[in-house]
Model the fold of this input.
Amino acid sequence: MSMSTVEPGTRLADRFRLEDRVHESAGATLWKALDEILARPVAVHTFAPDFPRVTEVVTAARLASRLTDPRLTQVFDAADEDGTAYVVSEWVSGDSLLDLLESGPVDPERGAALVAEAAEALAHAHAAGLTHLHLTPGRLVWTSGGTVKLLGLAVDAAILDLRSEEPAREDAEGLGRLLYAALTGHWPGESDCGLPSAPLDDGKVCTPRQVTAGVPGYLDAITCRALLQEPRRGQPPLTTPAEVAEALAEVPRPTPVPVNTAPPALNLRSEAPDGLGMGVTTMPPQRPMQHQHQQPPRPQTGAASRILLTVIVLLVMAAVGVGAWTVGKNLGNTPRVTQPDVAESPSPTAKPVAVKPVSATGFDPLGDGAEKPEIAGLAVDGKPSTEWHTDSYLGADLGGLKDGVGLVLDMGKPVPIADVAVSLGDSAGATVQLKVGDAADLGSLKTVAEAKGASGTVTLTPSKATTGQYVLIWFTRLPPYLGKYRGTIYEVTVHSPGSA
Done:
């Protein structure tokens, strides 16, 4: 297969199906694809037939695949066979440093912690003979799983034909640029990375503390030692990623998504867990320590024990006689016992049930009438790896062209709506409204719920009972996407109230 025939739907290596073209530049195209064997999204680079550095890219990808640091993008496959060249790597979801800096610099120590993680990962790569050479805010990601990922190791440089006689120093300076961006919200590099340029003082980049108030002195010094390659506070310049990592070693690290490691309480189990219920004995509470080492009483022996046994037998017989007399006396005088009123158990709460729509379509009544209708069904196909998305716009307000755009579902008949779960993209900033009505007409659809600054999975719940045949997910603001703005919906699930 020639690379000139690559298009959405193309399958590579009989398992990777290309789905969405994400970016294209200078003969290299990045796709979001689906690994059909493992049913997971992956990132795939493909290359035009005349791309001049295919061999270098494939070699770099294969070398990068040998690294095991979880903070580096994992490469799954790389090939150049029969006119087809491609690199397959993990699909990383989350917010890049560029995304995090949209509203200005982040908390200084949080930003420094992200860069510290990248520095440690890059130090491991350099120890294995691999470099990055293209460290930008878009390549450092805080993932949706609460970890740090550095994208593009070795592969970016091969694609862009970047070289350096001092790669360790170049990557140390790159880490300094990332740290500067995190602390100030400005970019001290020559290339346009989506951030405003760093201000200059007499032709020299201003230090972070000159740009932003509240930057700790030690982080200002580390930034200058890496970025400007200058000694600060009696410390020498930082010339390798390992030195940057060591300088940032004391910065508190970002907290990952909490994982509950405590075992479930045994008294809540209705049955023993597999393999754990056999041979397990619950220990009784232990006695206070001062009693644990007392000598046990000596057993009674000989005549003394026989006398004690006789006394015990007589006492038991007396107790039985008294008990029998008491029971007989009270048999005829048993008071009537009245059962206390028992509160009637409440009816179990009805669990909402998912209702599958008959169809879905892109809805653009204020524009040309339709918005990506050919992929609308991907938002209701039950596969979280597929998506519908809007066109890309120049502004979050849809470039000022219209008030909104969305995805409309036809339920086939009027149904009561309990809530609608919408899986959005990972970039924050979307404003979505839930509109319901009996006609696929904007004037007939009433807004019943709204979420602002949304990302990930959001649940839109009407404030009162709502019924309708058409359900509209309506974007009034779009999140950033590759330098522009685009709304994305991976999956929509409509819930109707269940019967108790």
Q: What stands out?
A: The chain has three domains: 10-90, 94-250, 353-496. The longest helix spans residues 302-330.
